[in-house]
Amino acid sequence: MGNMRKDPDNGRATEELSVRIGRTFVRLLRRALIIVCLESVLIGGIFAILYTLLDNRGSAREYTEKIDRAMLSKVSMLEAVASGVSSGTLNDREDIQRYVDSMVEMDDQVSAVYSCYDENITIMSGGWQPPADFVVTEREWYKGAQADPEEVYISAPYVDKQSGGICITLSKATYRDGSIAGVVGMDMYMDNLVSLIEESYAGSSYVFLTTADGTVLVHPNDAYSLSVNNTSTVQEVNSGRYRHFVQNDMKTRLFTDYQGGFKFGIGNTSEVTGWKVISVKPIHSILLLFALIIGLNLGLYFVMTALTRRNVRSKISVLFYPLESISSKMSRVAQGDLSVVFDEEKNSLEIERLTDSINETIGSLKFYIDSISGTVTAISDKNLTVTIDGDFKGSYVQIKDALESIVSNLNASFSQINQEAERVLEYADSLKRTTEHVAESASAQNELVASVSEDMARLTEQTRQITERAGSVRDNAETTKTHLETGNREMAELVSAINSIEQCYREIAGFVGTIRDIADQTNLLSLNASIEAARAGEAGRGFAVVAGEINTLAASSALASENIHKLIAQSQSAVSAGKELVTATSATIQQGMSDSAQSKQHMDEIVEFVKKQQKAIEDVNEELREVAEIVENNAASAQENTAISQQLNECAQSLQQMVDSFTLR
């Protein structure tokens, strides 16, 4: 200390000051150490608890997201199968059989794909044929899919008796002509999900999986896990202490584990399946950390107080002068200036150690900052093959591990994104082809429906004309019936008139007979008169003339009556023939009236039937117009889906190009 004044009074004052400062420093240091120890214990404990809770919460979310990602790919695959079956491009059983066989080959976790229909028809991959008593429409997965046709139904997990593995069934409703016609299903193994859960078994920490109702699926204790011979629920195992995590999402709770000891647990629900993911973390690490912090703080307290009591009084005075320089330089270091060199006069071993330590610390900081900066720069340049070289020590090892973990996670994430992008691209291409087939089918259906509509319109017009003709025939039949009824009445009157004529002929015949009798008597009287006139001689001559005239009159009367009788006989014969003819004609007219009435009834029925047919044809025509609108809308939707699939394809290609811009390990 060449710049210090060598004055004895000043030396004593400095010594007294150093003593007072040393004592004061020791007291303050003790208090500070006590406060620091308490705070470090409290803060360390809080951070340890928070770290465990956050780690447990992150573990539950991480495994839930992994399960959701794994199941979403299967859900997307089943939706693609349902779209392919509903598109209408698979027209026969052989096409559907080839389609489901090809879908099974796409994923080794899928054991079977099948297309079922309401007519109790099942077409399964591999050509499996159901037994005679197999009723597919009564299956739970079939009913569940049709109950909510817009969503994919996921069955409760079950154990395959042949392989002993856990399986689930996914199903979705399919359509035919716009109506629900059946269900497609997919059986898959849960081996990947079981392996995923088993990866979490690390010491006393673990994650296990249950169904929504609490049935344990995968657990580190095999006695709890679902198997051929065992089915356990959270209400039964571990004295029911797991129930809280199934009933409440993301709520941490302290409980007694089946292995013994207290642990933190938290549950989370899968959005895709509704299953429960429960993460369990031990608490003994927190207790050990508490004990370690307390021991370190007590050791630090006793060591610091002992060292301070022994050395601070003799050393503090020599520290004052270089400490000011060190303090000013440390301010520059605090502002980020690492070019500072601590070259103060080493008037004490502490100052020497302090400056060497600070210089060494600055050198280490430069090294760490350069390494970290190089790594971050490489990441910003999309180079994910970078590695962190050099020997990191102490707390910086955590930074190195964190950076290496970040780079590894980025590599894994981008690799998975690249795989998913390729899969999305495949799905987009498949969707595009399917949508194009649907659009072509919809266009063909639209043309066919238009042609049928035109035929139905012509049929409607022809039916209308038939209805008009049938109405006209019915009116003519009514008129004919009226004329026949009039003719029947007139014929009846004619029969009555002929009967009257016949009666008159009978009466005239009677009169002719009377005339004939009168003529015979007159003739007899004239004969008698002639005889009497002859007897009278000359006196009777005049009377003889009269008798002769009377005889002549009688002969004429007899001849006239005979002619009249012949005429009457002929007239009666003609009247009888006319009567028979009129009777036959009347019977014919009666039969004609009956036939006309029956014809009119049949014609009425024909007219009514034709009207109903016309109404039915008009209804069919209207429904065809509605079907044409639906088909047209389907065609438009198919075109929109084609555009969407094209956009999806472009997005997948863009995502793949973006991932390709990164250089991965």
Topology, element by element:
Blueprint: H1 8-86, H2 93-104, E1 110-117, E2 121-124, H3 140-147, E3 153-154, E4 158-159, E5 166-176, E6 179-189, H4 191-198, E7 206-210, E8 216-218, H5 243-247, E9 253-256, E10 262-269, E11 276-282, H6 284-334, H7 349-380, H8 396-536, H9 541-660
Helix pairs in contact: 1-6, 1-8, 6-7, 7-8, 8-9
CATH class descriptor name of the domain at 49-282: Alpha Beta
Query: Average pLDDT value?
Result: 78
End-to-end gap: 59 Å
Structural class: alpha+beta
The profile of the biggest β sheet is: 6 strands, antiparallel
Q: What is the number of E strands?
A: 11
Helix content: 55-70%
Radius of gyration over alpha carbons?
61 Å
CATH architecture of the domain at 49-282: 2-Layer Sandwich
At the fourth level of CATH, the homologous superfamily of the domain at 49-282 is PAS domain
Question: Helical region count?
Answer: 9
Strand content: 5-15%
Series of H and E elements: HHEEHEEEEHEEHEEEHHHH
- Low-confidence blocks of residues: 1-15
Shape annotation: rod-shaped
Topology-level CATH name of the domain at 49-282: Beta-Lactamase
Plain-language structure description:
By secondary structure, this protein is α+β, with helices and mostly antiparallel strands. Among the domains are: 234 residues, PAS domain (Beta-Lactamase, 2-Layer Sandwich), CATH 3.30.450; 183 residues, Orthogonal Bundle (Helix Hairpins). 69% of the residues lie in helices and 10% in strands. Strands 1, 2, 3, 4, 5 and 6 form a six-stranded antiparallel beta sheet that branches. A five-stranded antiparallel beta sheet has the order 8-7-11-10-9. A hairpin with a 5-residue loop joins strand 7 and strand 8. The longest helix has 141 residues. It is rod-shaped. The two termini are 59 Å apart.
